[in-house]
Structure of Monocarboxylate transporter 5 isoform X1:
Amino acid sequence: MLKGTKSRPYAEPLDGGWGWMIVFHFFLVNMLLMGLTKTFAIFFVVFQEEFGGTSEEIGWIGSLLSSLRFIAAPLGAVLCEKIGEKSTSMLGALLICTGYLISSLATGISFLCISMGLLPGLGSACMYHAASVIMAKYFKKRLALSMAVARSGMGLTFLLAPLTKILIDEYDWPGTLVLFGGISLNLVPSSMLLRPISIKREEHMATRSTDAESPPEVPAGKDGQPPSPGNCLVSKDEPTGQGAAISGCQDNDEAVFSNKPRFYKQLIDNSPLKNPLFYIFTWCMLFSQLAYFIPIFHLVARAKTLGIDTMDASYLISMAGMTETLMQLLSGWVADQNWIKNYQYYKAYLILCGITNLLAPLATTFPLLMTYSIFFAIFCGCYLAMMLPVMADFTGNSTLNRFLGFAAFFAGLVILSGPPIAGNYLPSEGINRKVLIHAKFLSTIYQKGTISFLTCFLVFSSSSSPNGLCALLQT
């Protein structure tokens, strides 16, 4: 949405209608972008054979690809406010396409870190943030279900994983990356479905909040012009409503700052950092997302060290993708029944993810690895479908854009180091030892996130609303 484009005003979210076209777009985004990200596990082995790098070095490519979707979220938030969700999404699609096309010319790992890591990562941040924010504007009662349907596109990686292996065998990895660039270009026309919408109630609340936080205006001088800073006369003897009476202006510095436009305040809005719920949710999101990408990027390489064929190992990702799709749909439907609070589902799924990773050292054969992949996908699919609904419950639509941007940024900083750290463990030990260390690393991260989440929400459970939690934490 360019600056001159008007958004349609509604009294409340539609919970349907054109919103399902938004869901369709987000479904394509998840299917293509997350699908291409997950297939990096197959490229991981190919790049290792082609360029001869270590697991830690190649892991940085996937780490940049996955983490920048979170780290660059504040950039996506700013772009959404300035040029609109539609234009932001189209820009992201072009960045992703350009990155994959340039990657086909790669001559080394450093080149791929920029072309396959940086550019698609920035593009993904723009597309995911734009789709998430506008979906929360279109849906309220059905937000969990609509988010589950949209994120179920991630599960269609069960088609892309074997297809990627076939394409690499047929066209080699440069040709496959060119095809991926062409596929991602389809997200440009898909982004045009993001019709802007505004909710009157949210706009009214946001306007009141902005007016309450804005500083008092400086009285005009002669001829209706602002007083010159050099000619300010301050009277401290006569108190007024806000402080000293102002004849010309408060003082030189205050006059200058009070007349500046609000652009910088809007560009760097740190209001989420004042919300205790922000720290609770971000701490949980940080560790859970860190552990989510590690098995995705290292599962095929780990299976290969156990003597499993690469083609067979690709079916691990395929089965996990199908399972994750079904569980996201089921999780969204269950959440919309309102049997219990959304955050209670969320923390339960995180606990089960941690337990699954505690059992990861036992997966030393293909059937056991398949079992691990399925259960890991079950609980990951469930909690991923609940992330946006839980965040929307805490913040509301008026501040969701900035809240999501900051939370994703801090989570991305940690996600950046996940795959390289896990890859650093792999070359130094024997197969059994490697599997044990890798699994312990995963389970430790998940348990830390889960324990932190539970500890914070014990406080939340004693309150009837998020506002009550804020009051408890501030006392």
Notes: Residues 431-461 form the longest helix (31 residues).
